[in-house]
Amino acid sequence: MGFDKKGSLISYRPDIKVMDCTIRDGGLVNDFYFEDDFVRELYHTCIKTGVDYMEFGYKASKAIFSDKEFGKWKFCTEADIRSIVGENNTDLKISIMADIDRTNFREDVIDRKDSVIDMIRVATYINQIPSAIEMINDFNAKGYETTVNIMALSHVNDHDLMEALELLSQTGVDVIYLVDSFGTFYPEQIRDMAERYLIVGDKAGKKIGIHAHNNQQLAFANTIEALTLGVSFIDSTVNSLGRGAGNCPTELLLSFLKNPKYNIEPLLVFIKEHIVKLKENGLVWGYDIPYLLTGILNRHPSSAINFIKEGKNDYTKFHEYLLDNG
Amino acid sequence: MGFDKKGSLISYRPDIKVMDCTIRDGGLVNDFYFEDDFVRELYHTCIKTGVDYMEFGYKASKAIFSDKEFGKWKFCTEADIRSIVGENNTDLKISIMADIDRTNFREDVIDRKDSVIDMIRVATYINQIPSAIEMINDFNAKGYETTVNIMALSHVNDHDLMEALELLSQTGVDVIYLVDSFGTFYPEQIRDMAERYLIVGDKAGKKIGIHAHNNQQLAFANTIEALTLGVSFIDSTVNSLGRGAGNCPTELLLSFLKNPKYNIEPLLVFIKEHIVKLKENGLVWGYDIPYLLTGILNRHPSSAINFIKEGKNDYTKFHEYLLDNG
After folding, report:
1. Which has the closest alpha carbon to B189: B222, B157, B164?
2. CA distance linking residue A3 with residue B173, whole number of Å
3. For the CA atoms of chain B, what is the radius of gyration?
4. Are A256 and A319 contained in the same domain?
């Protein structure tokens, strides 16, 4: 590999930051209808475990999405976040995510000095980079830390990616994320991608992040492989709670990281008290055959999500459907 | 890395052999009580998918273990295997496993020319190497292909391992296996271990195999990382069905391998018809918090298996128990 290994299995790298996205990515499983108690306990758990950032959800526009159809964490109003965190006088930073064209960011995002939010992450497809840059500039001007998350990376051609990275590296964005939306990459591909990001990032003084999905049971493996090369912002969700096959599990990530600030015990309590209950109440996420199939075929998980929701298990028929509808 | 990458993500390596251990490792979950129909359908599925070997179980001695307490695949009599495979006039090879001191191998293992079994795998701990060699010699003399599987590798010190590999490389054994019994290794450790095995194996003309466990959701990742360096015998089980957190899933492995001989479709049918039913009937295996904890602490999964069997979920108490009983 062209890149030297950063850090070791015994020591730790203080530059690594853990971002728990349980509410945001998990919200895609339950339309953001989390009980306040769940969100509040997760917030206190994140503080106690030493997680660096907690993402509360999306900043979607109520002019575009109905708050009758989605829970409050799709919209993340200042008041709703404050109802959980107060003034957030803690070391845990608060993040939200904004999608291109789904947010009324100029009006809905207030100045950071008046907000408890610390970071805004811009989720973008490759064909939306100029819009992403516009949002990044707005959020930076308002005083926020920012990241840009290039989604569906496995559908992006090399030339477009390199141009996007170049453009983004000229903005004030703090972190550029590698996002394996479809859970399709193998570790050697992730290492290759991470190197490209890191080369641009090192030159421009940007940190690199990773957001992985677990369609092929590789979310944790891909995450730590990227980390080993120098990626430093790591997305994870408690017990993988996230869209489709879910994400890199926070409990595995914290057990891997050796920084004494991280402590897995409060997370074990939270899983026992809250995650087990969600499962018992019928919320379904995590590795399953339909997600494996969309993963290996490099497809969006939506068809697999519907297949599972409908209680189907004719996997060969689903496979045929995917092959016929490329 | 000292070793060059073997093969690529687009081509395939004909030296790679897939060993489905579902009955053998899965038998550790249900005391080897599989219905004949399950075993027969799995046999036909292995043939149709192009899997290279199917392992039927252990060759345990009925003088040591009671056939009232264990199903027939703990003992793998010639008659029981033939009742499934007949003369096995197929390309699928039949394997069984023998533990040191748990098998009456001199009498119970007949000559290969009179058996439908093709391969016998010797499972050994590091302190049993001379006994393993005695068994390997006996099985080779009787005409079988053989492997030796050094279990609990994460408890073996480097000096002992290198001496064991040296001794084994002087026998007639065909394959030497790297076994992560406790699911404790990270990919970079697996790559390091695989290199040690491959250096000895290349010199002595032995193939190297890998058997992984999924305590940290790394069984598939560790398997393909080892494979990329030149490991060529790959253990897997359907949908991870195996002790504790289970194994590298056969369906993920076959979807990764590009050899046209492998075909995932029959496996999807088998999972739908048989694996889903096992789960509905209450058989429990696969990633769960207690296995994560034994994995990161490099412990045998038995205490986690009991904890889960008893329906407990006080993970912090279990963690404390593990820390107190090192």
Report:
1. B222
2. 38
3. 19
4. no
Give pLDDT < 50 ranges for chain A: 1
Residues B37 and B148 in one domain: yes
Same domain, A311 and A261: no
Asked, for residue B8, whether it belongs to a domain, the answer is no
> CB-based burial of residue B311 (10 Å sphere; 0-12 exposed, 13-18 middle, 19+ buried)?
exposed
What CATH code is carried by the domain that includes residue B60?
Answer: 3.20.20.70
Q: How many domains does chain B have?
A: 2
Q: What's the CA angle centered on B85, arms B84 and B90, to 5 degrees?
A: 155
Same domain, A109 and A136: yes
Partner-chain contact A292 B255, CB within 8 Å: yes
A 150-189 residues inside an 8 A Cβ radius of B: 186-189
Distance CA B322, CA B303 (A): 9
Element (H, E) at A262: none
**What confidence tens digit (pLDDT) does each residue in B98-142 have?**
999 999 999 999 999 999 999 999 999 999 999 999 999 999 999
Q: Contacts by A8-11 with C-beta closer than 8 Å and gap 24+?
A: A9/A258, A9/B186, A9/B188, A9/B189, A10/A258, A11/A258
Alpha helices (H) along chain A = 22-30, 36-49, 78-85, 105-108, 129-141, 158-169, 187-204, 219-229, 250-256, 265-270, 276-280, 289-296, 302-309, 315-324
Residues of B in contact with A314 (CB under 8 A): 272
Same domain, residue pair B21 and B159: yes
CA distances in angstroms from A50 to A91, B106, B319, listed in the order given: 8, 58, 19
The answer on A312 and A224 residing in a single domain is: no
H helices of B88-186, in order, are 105-108, 129-141, 158-169
The residue segments making up the domain with residue A309 are 289-324
Is A147 strand, coil or helix?
Answer: strand
- CA B84/CA A295 separation, integer angstroms: 35
- Closest-CA residue in chain A for B189? A9
B272 and A221 within 8 Å at the Cβ level: the answer is no
| Residues A166/A197, Cβ–Cβ less than 8 Å | no
Among candidate residues B322, B204, B238, the one with its CA nearest the CA of residue B51: B238
Stretch 279-308 of chain B: residues touching chain A, C-beta under 8 Å: 289, 292, 296
Which residue in A has a C-alpha nearest to residue B277's C-alpha? A313
Q: Do A309 and A242 lie in a common domain?
A: no
- Would the CB atoms of A217 and B216 count as touching at under 8 Å? no
On whether the CB atoms of residues A259 and A16 are closer than 8 A, the answer is: yes
Q: Is residue B6 part of a domain?
A: no
> Is ipTM beyond 0.85?
yes
CA distance B288 to A251: 11
Residues A213 and A302 in one domain: no
Q: Does residue B7 sit within a domain?
A: no
B75 falls within a domain:
yes
What does the angle CA B60 – CA B63 – CA B65 come to, to the nearest 5 degrees?
A: 55
B73-96 per-position pLDDT tens digit: 999 999 999 999 999 999 999 999
A271, B315: Cβ pair inside 8 Å?
yes
Cβ within 8 Å of A, B 262-281: 264-265, 268-269, 271-272, 276
Q: Tell me the pLDDT tens digit for each residue of B166-224.
A: 999 999 999 999 999 999 999 999 999 999 999 999 999 999 999 999 999 999 999 99
Would the CB atoms of A315 and B225 count as touching at under 8 Å? no
